Amino acid sequence: MVRMHQPGESTFKAILPEDIEWKTFPAFPPSVRLAVLVGEPSAAGPYVIRVKVPAAVKLMPHKHPEDRIYTVMSGVFYIGLGEQFNGSKVEAYPPGSVIVLPGETWHFHWARSGEYVTQVMAIGPLGLDYHDSADDPRNLAQSGN
Questions:
Q1: pTM of the model
Q2: At 16, phi and psi to the nearest 5?
Q3: Hey, which of 4, 41, 85, 98 has its CA 20 to 30 A from 123?
């Protein structure tokens, strides 16, 4: 039986930290950065991304249609569940922690104690819907604010 490789996975490769290309992402606040490591998040199929959130930044309540597995790479990852942001409801996860987040789960993040980097593995396409459309940076960009 011949096994088909996923896109970008047919040859051996390594991604070194200095080769990671951090970019802005329209659905995140402007200071947050995203790096695509493996796959194409906008397409069907597996992908691996990293998200870097600077100190004090909050990602307001949102959900993703896809199941996600987060690995905390650096810093402390604060995540809470629910449709309303509540800083007293966040749980702190140190580097090395793995968090399983089922699709369609309302949640929020907070870089409460400083910058953090998470790695996300999922099966695309990536989706992100904010509970309150006023929290969605894509709407701010469209309105010219």
A1: 0.90
A2: -90, 150
A3: 85
For 78, the domain range is: 19-143
Is residue 136, in this structure, part of any structural domain at all?
Answer: yes
For 100, residues 6+ apart whose C-beta sits below 8 A from its C-beta are 67, 68, 69, 70
Classify 144 as helix, strand or coil.
coil
pLDDT in tens, 103-121: 999 999 999 999 999 999 9
Structural domain contains residue 8 = no
Residue 11: predicted pLDDT: 85
Question: Is residue 127 within 8 Å of 65, Cβ to Cβ?
Answer: yes
User: Which has the closest alpha carbon to 97: 118, 113, 81?
Assistant: 118
Residue 6 lies in a domain: no
Domain count for the chain? 1
Candidates 42, 64, 47; CA nearest to 109 is 64
Considering Cα of 20, then 69, then 90, then 86, what sign does the dihedral take? positive
Q: CATH number, domain at 31? A: 2.60.120.10
The two three-digit tokens of residue 19, written as one number:
């080769």
Residues 63/102, Cβ–Cβ less than 8 Å: no
